[in-house]
Input
Amino acid sequence: MRNGYGVVLAAAVAGAAFSTGTAYAQCGGASWYALGSKTASGERMNPAAMTAAHRSLPFGTKVLVTNKHNGKSVVVRINDRGPFIKSRVIDLSKAAAKQIGMISRGHASICMTKM
Output
């Protein structure tokens, strides 16, 4: 599409992040994890916390993650690095994944926006 909205939507669907000023959005795949080890930020991974791993967002950033299949959303805080599978853009804690209904499949198609 030639208008600005179509270009932004195309970038989001392709899994690319885009940023205009303070706005931030990204769409792509998500998975969940529940390890007992330390995160890249130095915190111990807590599967019951609303946290997530992202490749580049600063630690402490809060993002709204929405499951595209069912419309359920959750706010998570970035405290780790990942995911390490190229088709995915975020790894959620088990509790966050449960809240948006993706535990049984293990992965979901999501869109996220910075809070």
